[in-house]
Specification:
The protein has eight helices and five strands, in the order βββββαααααααα. The termini are far apart. About 50% of the residues lie in helices and about 15% in strands. The longest helix is centred in the last third of the chain and has 19 residues. Helix 2 packs across helix 4. Among the domains are: about 60 residues, no CATH class; about 70 residues, Orthogonal Bundle (434 Repressor (Amino-terminal Domain)). It is α+β, with helices and mostly antiparallel strands. The strands form two sheets. The chain has a three-stranded antiparallel β-sheet with strand order 3-4-5, with helices on one face. It has a two-stranded antiparallel ribbon with strand order 1-2.
Length: about 190
Amino acid sequence: MRGHLIAAEGTAKTFRCPNCDSSDVKTTLETDRFDYGIGQDATTLEAEIPLRTCASCGFEYTDSEAEDIRHEVVCRHLGLLTPSEIEAIRNHFGPTRAEFASRSRIGEASLARWEAGQIFQNAANDNYIYLLAFMENWERLQARGPGLPSEFRRESRSAARVSVRRFRSLDEDSVAPLRRQGRDFLRSAVG
């Protein structure tokens, strides 16, 4: 393929060499081995990435497409949803990113960064988004009011009754002598 890559939609994409600005750029798929992690926790991962080579000046480079592929490989390694999967879950129910963020209480900026592959979501948020892929969970979230559902609230109240400690209430008449006694003590201690 010379000077362009056939995109999934069937449209040609032309690449320009960042070194000489030529449009005579070839794309080949290459296996990229890269380290992920630090020290003893580091592991070598593999990704098939597009390598761009300029036929005019010989300059070789990778671009954002390769970075997106590497990000996906790391997501798979970590057991996380990929950016495209997060976006697919959000789009499944039709809300805009702002509506999804508002309803799920996930920050819109975080959601945008996860979908763009700029950062990795933590495992808790990953699980939460995964659960939102199921219609019944999305509907529960849409119908949610304040607090827990009633079946949980009854259980909570009965557990709270067992552990409630009663304190006698103090009225002003019974507190006043205690305050006087405390002030008198402080005066005698200070001098």
